Amino acid sequence: MPPTTFRNARLTDLPTIIQLLANDDIARSRTGYAEEVTPAVDAAFKEITADPNNEIIVGEQDGQVIATLQVTYIPGLGRGGIRRALVEEVRVRSDLRGQRIGEALMNEAMERARARGCALVQLTTDKRRHEAQRFYARLGFVASHEGMKRPL
Amino acid sequence: MPPTTFRNARLTDLPTIIQLLANDDIARSRTGYAEEVTPAVDAAFKEITADPNNEIIVGEQDGQVIATLQVTYIPGLGRGGIRRALVEEVRVRSDLRGQRIGEALMNEAMERARARGCALVQLTTDKRRHEAQRFYARLGFVASHEGMKRPL
């Protein structure tokens, strides 16, 4: 297996990132899901990459983007005023799963979060994603909370 | 009951906000929990209020801060590039619960989120907080996700 390297996403990666996100039954079941780079997706990407508290990290093998996640760094008053990292939109290319690429990607995000002084990393994962829950549990995550959502 | 009004928190509210957050068994059980305004809490407050994507909203009755929450507005590539609102640190003063102040506070947060173009609001709540889960369900939240956390 070629080595996986990690870096911040660039605008030219966006079509591949959207393909990675779209190749997922649960994502496809959701209202508004995008299969290609729409103006809304393009605007969101530019906003994320311009915001110092948001990053999209991609994993690359042989110059191909094969994994992605978004991390948001959030200051807060709870737990003594800690900063936390929120992880969203985690995806590894389907034909490359089971090779610990997701683990390396999450470790990259957690190292960045630690370097920014975060004391906690958190995420929500659809209750139907049993494999994802086992994956996060192996990385030390505890399903201590209900993840509740509401459309607006 | 006097009317409750909502506004963004000011630095002078911080000691009261910290008291509201501290008056909670689950919060007290956590590492690093603060009972008073420490330098870390003060720094977090200043960072939150300086960040256009973070707000601390307080509810006020007769000039007294009696409720609080934090909301973070997060752009994302999922669900077609929607913006979401993350709510944290929701608290109503213990002697004033059951009077729909929490509902009004959450509605204020959701109105602000809508005004900023958010299509989704989300939160995590400790699985031991059964009453909180019923409260959020009444407001239309669905516990569709596991909320997973890990210390760093």
Automatic annotation (TrEMBL), chains A, B:
Which GO molecular function terms does the record list? Answer: acyltransferase activity, transferring groups other than amino-acyl groups
For this UniProt record, give its keywords in alphabetical order, as a comma-separated list.
Acyltransferase, Transferase
From which residue to which does the signal peptide run?
none
Cited InterPro entries: Acyl_CoA_acyltransferase, Bact_Acetyltransf, GNAT_dom
Question: Any idea where the N-acetyltransferase domain is?
Answer: 4-152
Q: Does the keyword rRNA processing apply?
A: no
A UniProt-annotated Pfam family: Acetyltransf_1
What this protein is called in its record is GCN5-related N-acetyltransferase
Its source organism is: Corallococcus coralloides (strain ATCC 25202 / DSM 2259 / NBRC 100086 / M2)
